[in-house]
Structures are given as C-alpha cells and as structure tokens.
Amino acid sequence: MTQARRVPVEIAIRPARPADLDQVIGLIRALAEFERLPGPDGAAAARFHADFSADPPRFRLLVAEEGGECIAYALYFFTYSTFLARPSLYLEDLFVRPDRRSRGLGRALLERLARVAVESGCGRFEWTVLDWNERAQKFYRSLGARILSEWQVCRVDGEALVALGSGTAGARSDPSVSK
Questions:
Q1: Which end of the chain is more exposed for a tag (fewer CB within 10 A), N or C?
Q2: CATH class for domain 11-147?
Q3: pTM of the model
Q4: Cα–Cα dist 101/98, whole Å
Q5: Residue 25 phi, psi (nearest 5)
Q6: What are the phi and psi torsion angles at 86 (to 5°)?
C-alpha cells in the first residue's frame, strides 16, 4: 500500500465563496483544455456565478487555496439511487493545476468529499473518468474506486435536447405513447 501524501499546511481545502468563482472559472478553462474541449465562454461564466448563488444552489464547490489563490477545485451535487433508496454524491469535476499535482491535493479533495457523502447518508460516491486518462484511472483505483466498464454515459444536448424536449426527436416507435 502506498503512503498517502500530506497536503502542505499552507494549503486550505474549504467550501468556495463567491469571491473565488472567477479563479475557479480559470481552473475550469484549464480542465477543458486538458480534456481537449471548449471551455466556458462569458455567458457560461455568468450562469456559473448565478447557479452558485441560486437558492438552493445548483451545485456545491470545494477549493484548495494556497496563498490566496485557488489551485484546485471539486464541483459536486447530490443525486438519488432508487435501488439503494439513498442519496448519492456525484463529482462533476476534480481539477488540480498541473504545477500543483503530486502533492496530495486530489486525494485530500476526494477524502473530503467521501466524508461529505458519509455525513449526508449517501450510499455511493460516483464520478466519470476519460477512457484515455490512465493516470487518473490508476489513482482512483488506488483509493478503492471501481471503474464500471459495463456502464456507458448517455448525453443529449444542443439541438437534440431541444428536439427531444419538444417531442420531435427521431421517429416514435410506439404511436400510442403521448407526450
């Protein structure tokens, strides 16, 4: 078993505050670049701010701060498992700045989230990992995570989401089913 790295004492892991959000947006843009995806534009950044401040908030956010600078974040929310009849904690994003990796921050964030899940009565803690990110997969397995290869992510977005929501997506297989 590998020895867990201790997060340096000058780094604080804490719930995000509104003043952190612009720095977090910068980290999200860095994550998007790493994942080879377009990052949030100005309108998305504005929605992010609004959703953080909504009542209730649409998501929760932890940051790792060093010297007044956010160097990592974890964005999560709660879902519900019908099979367990318990809430689940879903981790949407976990990102540590590349120059701050291998210092125990990812592990510390995941440990904090696992505590939140346990304290909230969750039956599971889940997230996804890109199939090509073998380093992350190895890390997650070292923490006891199982990668569920039998499950596939389904996504409907953009025009397809609008079409599905309006009942115009594809041909209906059963004409007796109404909207």
A1: N
A2: alpha beta
A3: 0.88
A4: 5
A5: -55, -40
A6: -150, 155
